[in-house]
């Protein structure tokens, strides 16, 4: 992927965070691009930037201060991949299937589109959390700001006629609930190996 793709992804995130209306105007230009296009030109570049941010942030601390070992940095980066891309992708699958069982006519492609861009604040928060690896509390705060994605989600869902208006709140609650549970579950799974690597490194210093 060219740098222009990453630059465009960052600009799109900025618009979605600062001016969701303008952001959606740009995304929903006619004709609307396919899910594969948005995956290739937005989601994957953003996830890659997040992984690089975590790899660089923790690697700098490992080399300069010695806070972490190289294996810890690698496992932490792997954990970041799972709590970002995996959580994002599986949430869409679960919510789509859940709503179908409820008899709702939810489009997987449109839910993918809405989640991709409404998570812009979360994506940015994860990047900052990686770059500010030495300040985990501050990094967690930036990730928490992903909650501001509620408005872009509703706005995008309305633009795409994702669901009937009387079901919007239920869909929003389902989407947030599944995403948060998956995110916390993945972090819990990786918590034990990360703690082991951290304490082993501390013991050997």
Derived from helix and strand composition plus strand pairing, the structural class reads mainly alpha
Biggest sheet record: none
Query: If helices are DSSP runs of H or I spanning 4 or more residues, what is the number of helices?
Result: 9
Distance between the ends: 40 Å
Shape: globular
Q: Oligomeric state of the chains?
A: single chain
Number of domains: 1
Radius of gyration equals 18 Å
Q: Beta-strand percentage?
A: under 5%
- Strand segment tally: 0
Order of helices and strands: HHHHHHHHH
**Helix content range:** over 70%
Low-pLDDT parts are none
Mean pLDDT: 90
What does this structure look like?
The protein is mainly α. About 80% of the residues lie in helices and about 0% in strands. The protein has one domain (about 5-70, about 85-190). α3 packs antiparallel against α4 (about 70-100). The protein has nine helices and no strands.
